[in-house]
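Input structure tokens:
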């Protein structure tokens, strides 16, 4: 397996996994939003995307991050916004390797911390996450502003 930053040529494979990820999260997005997301992931300094590829070049997983300033440090933070592994490749260490890739990126860029959220019912993922980071007792509130 190989992990690398996603590039323009990866769009068709990423799009397929992105749609599976949205379905997994019971979400739908307009194609224009998906295209805007892809453009940001491949061209923005603040957003990055890595993919995990099989030996045959098949995209098995992706991780998307947002690098941003915050108020508790003079260094940036990294928020893992999306992480998805195709069902057939789960429980093989791919998610762990992707998160560790983000940790290495954060260290290289002298970031203060890496953080993410997951669903309360995503027990399988939480088992992995608990080995990689500290679970916080925070509750997220959200208001969509239209």
């Amino acid at each position: 397996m190989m992990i690398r930053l996603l590039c323009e040529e990866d769009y068709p494979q990423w799009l397929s996994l992105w749609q599976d990820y949205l379905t997994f999260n019971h979400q739908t997005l307009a194609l224009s939003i998906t295209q805007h997301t892809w453009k940001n992931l491949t061209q923005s300094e603040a957003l990055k995307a890595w993919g995990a590829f099989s030996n045959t070049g098949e995209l098995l997983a992706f991780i998307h991050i947002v690098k941003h300033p915050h108020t508790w440090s003079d260094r940036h933070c990294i928020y893992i916004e999306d992480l998805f592994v195709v069902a057939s490749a789960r429980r093989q260490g791919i998610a762990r390797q992707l998160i560790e890739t983000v940790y290495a990126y954060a260290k290289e860029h002298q970031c203060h911390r890496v953080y993410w959220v997951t669903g309360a019912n995503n027990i399988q993922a939480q088992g992995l996450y608990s080995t990689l980071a500290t679970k916080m007792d925070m509750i997220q509130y959200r208001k969509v502003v239209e």
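The two ends are 41 Å apart (CA to CA). The chain has one domain: 2-132.
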